[in-house]
Amino acid sequence: MRTRFAVVSLALAASLGGIALAPTADAAHHQSAPLSVARLVKAPGFNAAGTWSIYQSNVLIATLNVTQDAQGNLTGTASKSGSSATGTIDQGFVDGNYIYFVIPWSDGTKGRYIGSLGADRHLSGVSTDLAHPTSQATWNTTQAF
């Protein structure tokens, strides 16, 4: 779980303006404290399983067929509309109201999707093409979770 929190924190910070996170010199003395990250990490707050679509601001629509286990890990397949590109969900998980997954697409792109569940129960977030990191888009779903 600590790894998930670190991955989400770093990915979210990077996607929201490249903020770098580094421990202070004083933090090295307190790393063994039991308070730590474990209390900040939540169980899955929603179930992302099923077939649903992501609508990106760059006009791409991706349809996902998602399976979620009890720990919040996501697996599944995806396809891009208007294209024959397909992919498999990699490194995916739900943690509290946050969602994170990567899709290596058959067309050579590699999408990283970071998002959250809104008060309206819809997902939204930011996607980055890891093969071309300057290529980013916002995304949302019309399906409620």
User: Helical percent range?
Assistant: under 10%
- On the 0 to 100 scale, the average pLDDT is 81
Q: Strand percentage, roughly?
A: 35-45%
Q: How would the global form be characterised?
A: globular
Q: Any idea what the radius of gyration is?
A: 16 Å
- The fold-level CATH name of the domain at 43-140 is Lipocalin
CATH architecture of the domain at 43-140: Beta Barrel
- So, the CATH homologous superfamily of the domain at 43-140? Avidin-like
Strands, total number: 9
The ordered string of helix (H) and strand (E) elements is: HEEEEEEEEE
CATH class of the domain at 43-140: Mainly Beta
Task: Name some characteristics of this structure.
eight-stranded antiparallel beta barrel; 145 residues; 10% helix; Lipocalin
What does this structure look like?
The chain starts with a helix and ends in a 5-residue tail after the last strand. It has a domain at 43-140: Avidin-like (Lipocalin, Beta Barrel). It has 145 residues and is mainly beta. It has an 8-stranded antiparallel beta barrel. A hairpin with a 2-residue loop joins β5 and β6 (98-104). The longest helix is centred in the N-terminal third of the chain and has 14 residues, at 2-15. The protein has one helix at residues 2-15; strands at 50-56, 61-68, 73-80, 86-88, 90-95, 98-104, 110-117, 123-129, 136-140.
